[in-house]
Design goal:
Chain lengths: 357, 130
């Protein structure tokens, strides 16, 4: 007998509201219908009343967890539109703060994911490590999460040699911490039982449904927007992390390995950090159309901007990775047990505020 | 079982959390919390009001009033950087919890008529540049 089980919008495992109507037959999910729209704030429309400089702060608030990368993408769009050449040091600093954001986002997710399959002490451990990353951000930029360092033409804060030494020493603790949870996250018997072979997304499905980010790379597709070489990624060398199986365990492993990779990328960027200015003065107003992509912790994020030469933008359109990952989620759910649904939903790292803006 | 070594280590090491509010960590040098204005030095040019992304600052040049809504402020410090006389600062401590909603209201001396003429010129220049 078929039953409809409503899941969400308020659920202990969900950090943000998303609703799913699950079609269940004998505790096995046979279908799912999603409903979003609980946290729509109309941020895109704000571009009509805030000027293009003030919109940076609005874009940062599209998503709390990857705020620096949203602002970076928006600034890169405006710079492309106005033909501004950003100083090299600013590009490297953007990379450093972007990777710190990825690190803290992944650590947050690893904790939440552990919590979703009932591993409370692992959740606490991951968030304890994350606190070090938050400290690095607060000490270098002034704020913990919404660091607001990006401006059109560069960045607002600089790193002095003493800070760089401190950041590198703190990163050592972060790396040790991440490595200390590796065995629990990837080799533990109960964790493997909950994740291996659950919610399999094949390579063909992932490509067909347009999955993004770790969900896509967990299905053996080596696609990462950082390969485009924006900011300093082209110069510090970057290889996407790929796992072959396409199940929850693969997605977990991709994010775990990406955390370690981010630490390495920050080190490389600091190693090659060039001297010089951190911003250039920008004159004029944006005019024309620009389309730009960056890699967020959750996947590919697309910004489309249209300016008409006035201080306000005519149109701002943001496409976020979670939106791309909802159709793959709906193909993962059928065939899984009802008890596995929270784990599968979290395995795509849903950021609902991003999706609804 | 793979978590056991971490659990034992955590048992034997000191606590990772602090007994807040009895024990407070020193703020970092770069941190930016509550906004305040050295109202005696303020020239009421209104740059902070114009650049603020959350529009939490209101400046009244004629009466010399500088208001800020700390609940709308996003602590981005853009106004601090935009201030031409550097009278805006950000404290290194958070606001204390309170039972009443407290706004920041500052009353200063409005600019003298002589200086006023100069400032309006400056403002005009600024606007034309922008």
């Amino acid at each position: 007998m078929k039953t409809i089980v409503p899941f969400g919008p308020q659920h202990p495992v969900l950090p943000e509201p998303i609703h799913l109507n699950l079609e269940v037959e004998n505790e096995i999910v046979t279908g799912a219908i999603p409903a979003i729209g609980y946290v729509h704030r109309g941020l895109e429309k704000l571009c009509e009343i805030r000027d293009f400089n003030q919109m940076i702060q609005v874009c940062e608030r599209v998503c709390g967890i990857c705020s620096a990368i949203h602002a970076q993408c928006y600034c890169q769009c405006i710079e492309e539109m106005m033909g501004v050449e950003v100083p090299d040091r600013a590009r490297y600093l953007r990379t450093i703060w972007g990777e710190l954001h990825r690190m803290h986002s992944h650590l947050l997710w690893l904790g939440l994911f552990a919590d979703s399959f009932g591993f409370e002490s692992l959740f606490m451990q991951c968030w304890k490590i994350r606190e070090k990353v938050m400290d690095i951000m607060e000490a270098t930029t002034g704020n913990r999460v919404v660091i607001s360092v990006n401006i059109v033409g560069g960045v607002r804060r600089n790193l002095d040699p003493e800070q760089i030494r401190w950041v590198l020493s703190e990163l050592k603790f972060v790396e040790e911490g991440v490595k200390s949870v590796e065995a629990a996250l990837l080799e533990d018997y109960t964790v493997k039982r909950r994740l291996k072979g659950k919610g399999v997304l094949t390579k063909e499905d992932a490509l067909l449904l347009g999955a993004a980010g770790p969900t896509l790379r967990g299905s053996n597709v080596a696609q990462d927007m950082r390969q485009l070489g924006y900011a300093a990624y082209g110069e510090i060398g970057f290889e996407p992390v790929v796992e072959p199986d396409g199940d929850s365990y693969s997605r977990n492993k991709v994010r775990f390995r990406e955390t370690l990779q981010s630490i390495e990328l920050v080190r490389r960027a600091i190693d090659k950090l060039p001297e010089g200015d951190i911003s250039v003065k920008v004159k004029g107003r944006p005019e024309g159309e620009v389309y730009h992509r960056v890699e967020q912790p959750r996947g590919e994020c697309v910004y489309y901007l249209r300016g008409n030469g006035s201080k306000n933008l005519e149109r701002l359109r943001i496409r976020t990775p979670t939106f791309a990952n909802i159709p793959p989620l709906l193909t993962m759910l059928p065939g899984s047990e009802l008890a596995d649904v929270p784990v599968l939903i979290l395995s795509i790292d849903p950021c609902v505020s991003c999706t609804e803006r | 079982m793979k978590m056991s070594s971490n659990v034992i280590k955590n048992f034997l090491s000191k606590s990772s959390t602090r007994l807040y509010p009895f024990e407070v960590r020193d703020p970092f040098d770069a941190c930016r919390y509550e906004l305040y204005n050295d109202i005696e030095e303020c020239i009421f040019c209104g740059n902070c009001q114009r650049t603020c992304p959350s529009q939490c600052i209101t400046v009244d040049k004629t009466s010399g009033v500088w208001d800020c809504d700390p609940f709308a402020c996003v602590y981005c410090s853009i106004c601090v950087e935009a201030c031409p006389v550097h009278c805006l600062h950000q404290k290194k401590t958070h606001r204390e919890p309170a039972t009443e909603r407290q706004m920041i209201h500052m009353q200063g001396t409005p600019p003298q008529p002589k200086k006023k003429a100069k400032k309006t010129q400056k403002d005009d220049n600024h606007e034309s540049n922008a």
